[in-house]
Each structure stands twice: as structure tokens, then as C-alpha cells.
UniProtKB/TrEMBL annotation:
Name this polypeptide is given: DUF1508 domain-containing protein
Organism: Flavobacterium frigoris (strain PS1)
Domain named DUF1508: residues: 61-105
Amino acid sequence: MASFVITKRFSGDYKFELTSRKGKTIFTSKAYELRMDCESDVEYVRSAFQTCSFVKFKTTGGKFFFRLVIGDVVMATSRKYTTELMVQKGIDEIVKYGSEAEILDFSNNDFKFED
């Protein structure tokens, strides 16, 4: 099952990622100043997968990616893929598992390792 993972960037902003069943990042959101805004957009995206658009792009280096668009707002950008078929597999996984994805919030965790 896919998972939404909320984390805090080094800049202090929050973001969410959708990770696949195998733990690979499928897409990453824009930056959010407040955690509650990030959490509400996770819920919004999770409920809107059936109505969102996936706009595919190709980089000058030959890699492929997509942007998740709801209405006229870009909600997230995918990781780079080597083939257009892999992009489509990522999109298919989102449509199939995204609405059932669990939400994991790691934004408050301060991981410290003992010496």
C-alpha cells in the first residue's frame, strides 16, 4: 500500500511525499509554512485522485516526470523516470492505491543516535 509521508525540510517548511509499496518516492509536494496546511492538502489530494490531472513532461536530459494538477493548481511533482512507461506505471499506482494510502507524520521526530 502507498503512504503519504509528511516531513519537515531543513528550511523549516513542511512537505508531503507519496511513496510506493516498495518505499520509493512517487511525487513530492510544494513547500508549506504550516503543518496544518500540509495535512489538509494531503487529505484533499487523497480524496481527489479520481478527478486530478497528470501532466507529463520530458527534461532536456531525456528523463520523464509528471505534475499532479487539481483544478489549475500544481499540487505535486513526481520523481524523474527513465522511460515514459515508468511514468505511466507511477500514475497507475497513484490512481489504484492513492485514495487508500495511510498518512505518516514524521515532521516532529528528532532522530538522535546514541554514541
